[in-house]
Write a structure and sequence with these properties.
Blueprint: H1 17-20, E1 27-30, E2 33-36, E3 39-41, E4 44-48, H2 58-67, E5 72-76, H3 79-82, H4 98-107, E6 111-115, H5 131-134, H6 145-163, E7 173-177, H7 189-200, E8 207-212, H8 216-222, E9 228-233, H9 237-247, E10 254-259, E11 270-272, H10 275-286, E12 291-298, E13 309-312, E14 315-318, H11 337-345, E15 364-367, E16 369-373, H12 374-379, E17 386-388, E18 403-408, E19 415-421, E20 424-425, E21 427-432, E22 435-438, E23 442-447, E24 454-459, E25 475-476, E26 480-482, E27 485-486, E28 490-495, H13 502-509, E29 519-527, E30 533-536, E31 542-547, E32 550-556, E33 564-566, E34 574-582, E35 589-593, E36 601-603
Parallel strand pairs: 4-5, 4-12, 5-6, 6-7, 7-8, 8-9, 9-10, 10-12, 11-36
Antiparallel strand pairs: 1-2, 2-3, 13-14, 15-35, 16-29, 17-28, 18-24, 18-28, 19-23, 19-26, 20-25, 21-22, 21-24, 26-27, 29-34, 30-33, 30-35, 31-32, 31-34
Catalytic activity: Hydrolysis of terminal non-reducing beta-D-galactose residues in beta-D-galactosides
GO biological process, one term: carbohydrate metabolic process
Pfam family, one: BetaGal_gal-bd
């Protein structure tokens, strides 16, 4: 007979293999309690995405999460980040080395929860799904064989890598999520069962779970018998606990995402969440043995063009470059007031090992020199051109992100005429014989009866990552009209900015003189010892920034974000080149700042309230 203070061992003789836990799995449950190798356990996890943090900083950020009082790190795996092109094998090297990331977490003494999707949301472009897949005629996130066969091939590459790092194999992976918040998307339970089987048949033996919002509708659509049900929320954990207890009696209370902050859209305000509100809700979650993942514990950055977008009544809401998310560990690693408050709630003991704030370059202002006009610079980078009667979409061109330059040669009769772009996804600049007409979709043009070189530069502002708009195509999708007449005969040239090499960038910068307000500019930063910095472009309007050939991300005068975080590993001792692609009006200065400016704050309010 066990001693009175010895916890009962989890039951393993039941028909529900997942609830009982296979004998090799680290995490099991019984009687609403979670166990790790038979010892009562509570998952205290934090969201940390390897794809949003420079690899040289992975260990630093992991240690900060450990100092926060967490025992687990969870990460999504974005399929499109690993396999942006269908004709190329998935990559797992460098920044994409998810196995190395998992091993580093284990080396720091923390467990890992992996959320492989294939859909991840995460405010990431297309919810992590490759645009080469969603551009096909397939029903995504469903039992459609066109979708599951592609996911199966991806899982063939990914899942065995995760399986080899499970706790059963001596690694740190203790749990794997089945799909992601499927109940807010669809109700194809056959697909959910397929997803679960796709994981187990490829070697996953650890705890499996689903995660959905705490509503009847979402739980109806997203849960599976025999698989632990977790919820995602920002408030009211008592109501979520009561709902789960009624629907899934005997299961432990697990919050797979506790939204202690929120993300931002361009043109809106910077979302924050008061520390007191976070502490109160977190305390309610972990009460009575509850488990939690703080989303995000450290948000990081949407480097390049990987930021996603949302939709509100047909209006696109592109996500900003920063993914700071008002997290306990800020975008640059700073330990915030929220960090110390959360640490106290979690009962962390011992000293905080990591510095509160990492070193920064001293503030400075350097000239931003305009080198080449916009169209000349874009045309200078070789790219295959598609010719057809109508403009080719991004998907038809095999382009995930960036821009497309469409060119046609209509004859416009003498007099005043309307030029209409009927369906632009997402933003366009229109030129006639090299002269900018503007950035709208309806113009008045004065024809002379001559042929006009009509050019339409279309920019994607981010692919939708949540809701029915996932997979929506990008480009000049509807006809271009002169009055009621369709302009036909187009050359479409993809501009794959995210894939540009240093040589491509150099070609663009050297394309010719600067005679307009937009185009390519450079600034030179001299650094003695590399350190973090924040870049600002006062007077500039909208565009992209590269640092030593690395695409840092998008800036936009509409805010809320003003500064772009540049981590120290992107810089080198000596001369550093910052290249700017400005689409509207270039300012004359690049500023280095020692603190971020993410915009005027607005308190986050949870959608389920």
């Amino acid at each position: 007979m066990p001693a009175p203070d010895t916890p009962p061992a989890p039951t393993t003789t039941t028909t529900d293999a997942t609830e009982a836990g296979a004998v090799t799995s680290a995490l099991t449950w019984r009687g609403r309690r979670l166990f790790r190798h038979g010892v009562p356990h509570r998952i205290l996890s934090g969201g940390l995405h390897y794809f949003r943090v420079h690899p040289d900083l992975w260990r630093d950020r992991i240690r900060r999460l450990a100092d926060l009082g967490l025992n687990t790190v969870d990460t999504y795996v974005p399929w499109n980040f690993h396999q942006p092109r269908q004709d190329e094998a998935p990559r797992f090297d460098g920044w994409r080395d998810v196995e190395r990331f998992i091993r580093v977490v284990g080396e720091e003494g923390l467990d890992v929860v992996v959320r492989p999707g294939p859909y991840i949301c995460a405010e990431w472009s297309n919810g992590g799904l490759p645009s080469w897949l969603t551009g096909r005629d397939v029903m995504i996130r469903s039992s459609d064989p066109g979708f599951t066969s592609a996911v199966g091939r991806w899982f063939d590459e990914l899942v065995p890598r995760i399986a080899a790092l499970q706790a059963a194999e001596g690694g740190p992976v203790v749990a794997v999520q089945v799909e992601n918040e499927f109940g807010s998307f669809g109700d194809d339970h056959a697909y959910l069962r397929w997803n679960r089987e796709a994981l187990t048949t490829r070697g996953i033996m650890e705890l499996l779970f689903t995660a959905d919002g705490p509503t009847e509708l979402m739980l109806d659509g997203g849960t599976l018998p025999g698989t632990l049900t977790a919820v995602t929320l920002g408030s009211k954990p008592d109501l979520a606990r009561k709902l789960l207890a009624a629907r899934r009696p005997g299961e432990p209370f697990v919050v797979a995402e506790f939204w202690n902050g929120w993300f931002d859209h361009w043109g809106e305000r910077h979302h924050v969440r008061e520390v007191e509100s976070v502490v109160r809700t977190l305390d309610g979650i972990i009460a009575d043995g509850g488990s939690v993942s703080v989303y995000m514990a450290h948000g990081g950055t949407n480097f390049g063009l990987w930021a996603g977008a949302n939709e509100d009544q047909g209006r696109l809401q592109p996500t900003v470059t920063s993914y700071d998310s008002d997290a306990p560990v800020a975008e640059d690693g700073t330990l915030t007031a929220k960090f110390f408050a959360v640490r106290e709630v979690l009962g962390a003991r011992g000293p905080v090992r990591m510095p509160v704030r990492t070193p920064k370059l001293p503030p400075a202002r350097v000239p931003l020199v305009h080198r080449a006009d916009l169209l000349a610079g874009l045309r200078a980078v070789p790219a295959p051109t598609s010719t057809g009667p109508r403009p080719a979409s991004f998907e038809q061109l095999g382009l995930d992100a960036g821009m497309v330059l469409h060119t046609a040669h209509p004859r416009i009769p003498a007099g005043e005429h309307r030029l209409v772009l009927t369906d632009v996804r997402d933003q366009a600049l229109v030129f006639a014989d090299g002269t900018l007409l503007g950035g709208a979709d309806d113009f008045s043009v004065c024809g002379t009866g001559a042929v006009v070189r009509l050019e339409v530069l279309v920019e994607s502002l981010g692919r939708v990552n949540y809701g029915p708009g996932i997979g929506r195509h990008k480009g000049l999708l509807g006809p271009v009209l002169v009055d009621r007449r369709i302009v036909q005969g187009w050359d479409s040239t993809p501009i794959a900015l995210q894939e540009w090499s240093a040589a491509d960038l150099a070609r663009a910068v050297a394309a010719g003189s600067a005679t307009t307000h937009a185009g390519f500019a450079v600034a030179t930063i001299h650094v003695d010892t590399p350190a973090d910095t924040f870049l600002a472009l006062p007077g500039s309007s909208r565009g992209l920034v590269w640092v030593n050939g690395f695409l840092l991300g998008r800036y936009w005068k509409i805010g809320p974000q003003v500064t772009l975080y540049c981590p120290a590993p992107l810089l080198r001792a000596g001369e550093n080149i910052v290249t700017v692609l400005e689409l509207e009006r270039l300012g004359g200065t690049l500023e280095l700042r020692d603190r971020p400016e993410l915009g005027p704050p607005e308190e986050y309010v949870e959608e389920f309230d």
